[in-house]
């Protein structure tokens, strides 16, 4: 049985374990994450396995700071451009209608010059590093206590 769910999806109340889950993303509010100008709509999360699917919206110039992809990350750009700001592929751009996947262990920082909207699928959420070296998740919470179990 799955442990996946969509936070705040009222239409999922009282569904059977094997029922399909339709997510009304247009009815969901954008939630600010730990990085200024970045917002998500969590479409599906499975805290047990680490699987996470979000719509990610970034304001013009917003940045996702230094982070590591713990397992494969998949991103489809719906609007705008996502540009690697730092890392081994600095300057790499992904534009509207393009798809990128990043291997486990890859690390970079990225930003959206004009803003952007993307669908992001994580096998396990990324690990962000602050200037002091703390390991955080998208919400700014300590990564290890929430997600390390999913790496086993």
Features:
152 residues, mainly beta, Jelly Rolls, eleven-stranded antiparallel sheet, 1 helix
Compact summary:
By secondary structure, this protein is mostly beta strands. It is 3% helix and 40% strand.
Structure notes:
The protein is globular. 21% of the residues are buried. The chain has one helix at residues 143-147, and strands at residues 31-32, 38-45, 52-58, 63-68, 73-86, 93-95, 99-102, 107-111, 116-122, 127-129, 135-136. Strands 1, 2, 3, 4, 5, 6, 7, 8, 9, 10 and 11 form an eleven-stranded antiparallel beta sheet that branches. The two termini are 19 Å apart. With 152 residues, the protein is mainly beta.
Helix share, percent: under 10%
Radius of gyration from CA coordinates = 15 Å
Overall mean pLDDT stands at: 94
Give me the oligomer status: single chain
- Can you tell me the overall shape? globular
- Give me the number of helical elements: 1
* First-residue to last-residue Cα separation: 19 Å
Whole-number count of domains: 1
Topology as H/E string?
EEEEEEEEEEEH
Structural class: mainly beta
Shape-level CATH architecture: Sandwich
The H-level CATH homologous superfamily, spelled out, is Jelly Rolls
CATH class type = Mainly Beta
CATH domain topology: Jelly Rolls
Q: How is this fold's topology laid out?
A:
Blueprint: E1 31-32, E2 38-45, E3 52-58, E4 63-68, E5 73-86, E6 93-95, E7 99-102, E8 107-111, E9 116-122, E10 127-129, E11 135-136, H1 143-147
Antiparallel strand pairs: 1-2, 2-3, 3-9, 4-8, 4-10, 5-6, 5-7, 5-8, 5-9, 10-11
